[in-house]
Amino acid sequence: MKSLLRALVLAACALLSLQPTYAQAKGGEEAAIRQWFAAFTKAFEARDVNAIMAFYSPEVVAYDLVPPLQYVGADAYRKDWETFCSGFKGPLHMETRDLHILVSGNLAVIEGLYQISGTQASNGQPTNMWVRNTSVLRKINGHWLDVHDHVSVPADMDTGKALLDLKP
To answer: What is the C-alpha to C-alpha distance for residues 88 and 101, in angstroms, rounded to an integer?
Structure first.
């Protein structure tokens, strides 16, 4: 299964290299993925872990902002989402910029910049940060499922610290 996921990621990279302008895919599949993304955003903003996990393949591999280096499988990623969602009280907000969708057959890539804002559960303070995200989706049994997530922020190479105050 690991080799299949690696092949999917390599295929997604190859697809991106064929589209140097990152032209958006046309047609019904792009519309379906935009609907998928809108529904995911709604689940994210509601902090509904069960609804969020419905968007992922059981074999998802994810690289998130927090350790470990990778989450392998939906059970591991669910724990990450539970921790993330419990770190906030009330709804979250996600603004999206520079969203690009590339579709080829049963594979799709979504990439963009996402501003995440909400109220921290631990101290009641507001938080607001931009992250970069790339998701690889695969159409499985007629449904688009996320098989790979990569979330990141730039880092200052001299200090090794994340740069959380950057804005597009």
So the answer is: 29
Give the Cα separation of 45 and 93 in Å (integer): 5
Measured between alpha carbons, how far is residue 22 from residues 10, 18, 29, 100, 112 in Å? 17, 9, 16, 7, 11
Report the C-alpha gap between 46 and 57 in whole angstroms. 21
pLDDT tens for residues 15-65? 343 333 333 445 699 999 999 999 999 999 999 999 999 999 999 999 999
Under 8 Å between Cβ of 146 and 55: yes
Look up the pTM and report it: 0.81
For 10, the enclosing helix (H) or strand (E) is helix 2-18
Enumerate long-range contacts of 14-18, CB under 8 Å, 24 or more apart: 15/102, 15/104, 15/107, 15/109, 16/102, 16/109
Q: What is the DSSP string of 49-114?
A: HHHHHTTEEEEEEEE-SSSSS-EESHHHHHHHHHHHHHTEEEEEEEEEEEEEEEEETTEEEEEEEE
Say if strands 56-63 and 143-152 run parallel, antiparallel, or are unpaired.
parallel
Taking CA atoms, 5 is separated from 27, 88, 90, 120, 163, in Å, by 26, 31, 35, 34, 30
**Which of 40, 21, 43, 3 shows the shortest CA–CA distance to 137?**
40
